């Protein structure tokens, strides 16, 4: 084997990476902190498998992730399976099958790795760790607000500061379009214009002068994007169809509940945002931090289970993306490493560990203990019974 062969063995597919020290420990610690915060609010952890049969993994809301799912044949059952691209659908499956007789609302948490067929321009990683919660079996503004506040609580506990929350209503445009009886092709053109935040294109998508009222409504929705209180006031002034008005009222109630619990949390609303929220059925949200540009968490209301089979429950929840969290948070100070020369009894490590040291025991004799300690990246060496800084 040549040196070149060894180099090649270190190469990984695009979008995949080894997580090395100290980042691997940082991620594990952050996941533990988040899960503990969820448990403090009554969320119990579940652990779904890495792969599942295709029909269960890609049923219900999972259908939106079909193009992102790696597939393989199960050699035992000869049935197609998928490697999970997201854990929300798995937790929903557990809720409506294995835990269907548990009292509602059901609070579940999870943490683990997912893998996707391809990354995006903003997020090229294809494998990353997720941690999150699902609140299943209830449809209320209080549940929506709990998801937002719990995501913020967990991120702050991990050490991410200066958080902002963007609230969305991904079904609002469709509800307003249905109330105005817009054809499907008009709605598609309208979606493209709204995605570009282009007021002129919105009017053009709606066509002739008979749609002037509709153009005013959708331009009004565009202009509602921004700080939450101003956006809610703008939505309230619009004469929305009844279904759209009910969604806007729900968003206003959620904002009020979040404000009561966390008055200083920066909140924005974008009532026309839809991309990436295709399976959401109500109030949804994303969490960002001033440090780092990536989305830290995403969540919102959806239908848990398999609506096409008549097995479905209202749910809300969120997922925290741990790679983004590590980028947006400062690393905790590492424990000092104390080198113990040969011959030190194992039991003598315990008092030093109690003082916060990570113990690095010598397993071979070294002529120069200080030099050996430095070689092993230790900050201290035990010399004559004292931890001597290096």
How are the SSEs placed, and which strands pair?
Elements: H1 3-9, H2 23-40, E1 44-45, E2 51-53, H3 54-57, E3 70-73, E4 80-83, H4 88-96, E5 106-115, E6 127-136, H5 141-158, E7 163-168, H6 172-179, H7 184-195, H8 199-206, H9 212-223, E8 226-227, H10 228-237, H11 242-261, E9 267-270, E10 284-289, E11 297-306, E12 311-321, H12 322-328, E13 337-340, H13 349-354, E14 358-361, H14 369-375, E15 380-383, E16 386-389
Parallel strand pairs: 1-5, 7-9, 13-14, 13-15
Antiparallel strand pairs: 2-4, 3-4, 5-6, 6-12, 7-10, 8-9, 10-11, 11-12, 15-16
Could you give a quick summary of the protein structure above?
With 390 residues, the chain is α+β, with helices and mostly antiparallel strands.
Highlighted features:
390 residues, alpha+beta, BirA Bifunctional Protein, domain 2, 2 domains, nine-stranded mixed β-sheet, 14 helices, 16 strands, 37% helix, elongated
What does this structure look like?
- The protein is an alpha+beta fold and 390 residues long.
- The protein has two domains: 319 residues, BirA Bifunctional Protein, domain 2, CATH 3.30.930.10; 53 residues.
- 37% of the residues lie in helices and 23% in strands.
- It is built from 14 helices and 16 strands.
- The strands form three sheets. It has a nine-stranded mixed sheet. A four-stranded mixed sheet has the order 14-13-15-16.
- A hairpin with a 6-residue loop joins strand 3 and strand 4.
- Helix 10 packs antiparallel against helix 11.
Oligomer: single chain
Average pLDDT rating: 92
What is the CA-CA span between the terminal residues?
39 Å
Strand order of the largest sheet: 1-5-6-12-11-10-7-9-8
- Major sheet characteristics: 9 strands, mixed
CATH homologous superfamily assignment of the largest domain = Bira Bifunctional Protein, Domain 2
Helix content: 25-40%
CATH architecture of the largest domain: 2-Layer Sandwich
Indicate the structural class.
alpha+beta
Rg calculated over all Cα atoms: 26 Å
Q: Residue ranges: pLDDT <50 for 5 or more in a row?
A: none
Strand content: 15-25%
CATH topology of the largest domain: BirA Bifunctional Protein, domain 2
Number of domains: 2
- SSE run: HHEEHEEHEEHEHHHHEHHEEEEHEHEHEE
Shape descriptor reads elongated
Tally of alpha and pi helices: 14
DSSP summary, beta strand count: 16
CATH class of the largest domain: Alpha Beta
């Amino acid at each position: 084997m040549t040196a070149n062969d060894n180099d090649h063995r270190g190469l990984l597919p695009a979008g995949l990476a080894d997580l090395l020290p100290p980042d691997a420990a940082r991620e594990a610690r952050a996941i533990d902190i988040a899960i503990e915060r969820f448990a403090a609010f009554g969320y119990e952890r579940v652990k779904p498998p890495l792969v599942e049969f295709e029909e269960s993994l890609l049923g219900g809301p999972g259908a939106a992730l079909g193009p992102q799912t790696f597939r393989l044949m199960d050699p035992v059952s000869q049935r197609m399976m998928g490697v999970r691209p997201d854990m929300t659908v798995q937790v929903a499956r557990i809720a409506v099958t294995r835990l269907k007789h548990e009292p509602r609302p059901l609070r579940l948490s999870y943490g683990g790795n997912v893998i996707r067929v391809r990354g995006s321009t903003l997020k090229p990683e294809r494998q990353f760790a997720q941690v999150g919660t699902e609140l299943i079996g209830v449809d209320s503004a209080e549940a929506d607000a709990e998801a937002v506040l719990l995501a913020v609580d967990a991120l702050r506990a991990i050490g991410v500061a200066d958080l902002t929350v963007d609230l969305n209503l991904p079904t609002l445009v469709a509800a307003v379009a249905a109330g105005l009886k817009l054809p499907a092709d008009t709605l598609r053109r309208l979606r493209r214009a709204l995605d570009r935040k282009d007021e002129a294109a919105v009017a053009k998508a709606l066509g002739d002068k008979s749609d002037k009222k509709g153009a005013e409504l959708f331009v009004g929705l565009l202009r509602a994007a921004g700080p939450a209180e101003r956006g809610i006031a703008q939505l309230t002034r619009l004469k929305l169809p009844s279904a759209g008005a009910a969604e806007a009222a729900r968003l206003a109630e959620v904002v009020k509940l979040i404000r009561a619990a966390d008055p200083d949390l920066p909140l924005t609303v974008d009532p026309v945002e839809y991309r990436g929220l295709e399976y959401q059925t109500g109030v949804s949200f994303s969490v960002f931090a001033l440090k780092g540009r990536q989305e830290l968490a995403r969540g919102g209301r959806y239908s848990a289970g398999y609506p096409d089979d008549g097995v479905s429950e209202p749910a809300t929840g969120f997922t925290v993306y741990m790679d983004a969290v590590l980028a947006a948070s400062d690393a905790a100070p590492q424990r000092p490493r104390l080198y113990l020369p040969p011959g030190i009894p194992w039991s003598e490590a315990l008092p030093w560990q109690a003082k916060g040291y990570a113990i690095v025991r010598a397993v071979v004799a070294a002529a120069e203990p200080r030099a050996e300690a430095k070689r092993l990246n230790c900050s201290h060496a035990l010399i004559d019974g004292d931890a001597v800084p290096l």
